[in-house]
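re: that chain from earlier
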Amino acid sequence: MTATQTPAASASEKFIPVQTRSERPASFARADFPPVTGREAEWKYTPVREVGDLLDGPLGAELPNVGNPGTAGVETSFIGRDDERLGSVHAPEDRAAAGAWESFEQALLVSISGEEEKQAVIRLNGYTGAPQAAHTFVDIAPHARGLVVLVQEGPARLAESVEIRVGEGANVTFVTIGEWADDAVDLSSHHIRVGRDAFLKHIVVSLTGRTVRLNPSVALAEPGADVEMYGLYFADSGQHLEHQVWVHHVAERTRSRVTYKGALQGENAHSVWIGDVLIGAAAIGTDTYEENRNLLLSRGPVADSIPNLEIMCGDIEGAGHASATGRFEEDQLFYLMARGIDERSARRLVVHGFLNEIIQQIGNEEITAELNERLEEELAIADHAFAAEVNA
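^ sequence. v structure.
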């Protein structure tokens, strides 16, 4: 392991709250992180009682089934814990990720190479449904180009880490989609390092599962590094969908754009988005902007949205953030209804238009069709909820 490691305070040491995202400790040992109470800044929005077995219990190391990408320049294999790449991007930053690190026996390696444009969809399934650990390393070669979609399917109780190393001059889109069973639980950390003059478009889609906590972090480590991060989520009654995004501008002339959009419907539907951006002291010329927008489709959902920005450099191109949560804008509905569209159809058009911005960023016809079909299923549920609300 070669990632910079800051030992977490042991459970026996006096607890001192972390004040900013940049101060969060990192360690490969679960014991270095105190037991999670739910009062910690990084856990206070998470239903920790539902994920206790992934935080504290033993985790299985069974491997999922991996579909053949069938694309030249995209290869998958399993590698042992002794592979020097593992742990080189970043050390775990919470108890769940450290437990996953200690428990996996082999990691899934996704290698992307070649300067020609390419697309690949890799489907993972066969998870046990019992508490389980997983580790994935995505190795993007210098100057590689392409689009890779990782789809995780079926029942699961999973603690996992994904490391993504983006080589110099690469230009790649990497997408993860959770096609989980209704009762699935997924605690996932994505750690990304973007090299010199490289570009990564990172997209996460969270539509299914009971509790999903997916936290992407990226270090723009070398001059000219560029990242765009997109997220799409749709929370139904009883679902908890959480994303904590962390962008660290380390080198000069780096750029980041973060756009997460979600819709919520039903009692106790809950989404969490926390967006942290740090512009380091050496990150001259940084250009960054992050936004999160949530659309509430009924009474009852709760959307927590918290953007944060730390600036340690006085010579930057620009930095900003935005957050908005609300119900339908009446002028949009009025515009459509004034043209003969009934209210229910107008609502569906508004929701689809609101979320379609993220879907269009993927650029794969197969996946776009699947997500549009899934959205139609969600909107059908929204129709029933809307009708019940009107008749109440």
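The chain has a mean pLDDT of 91.
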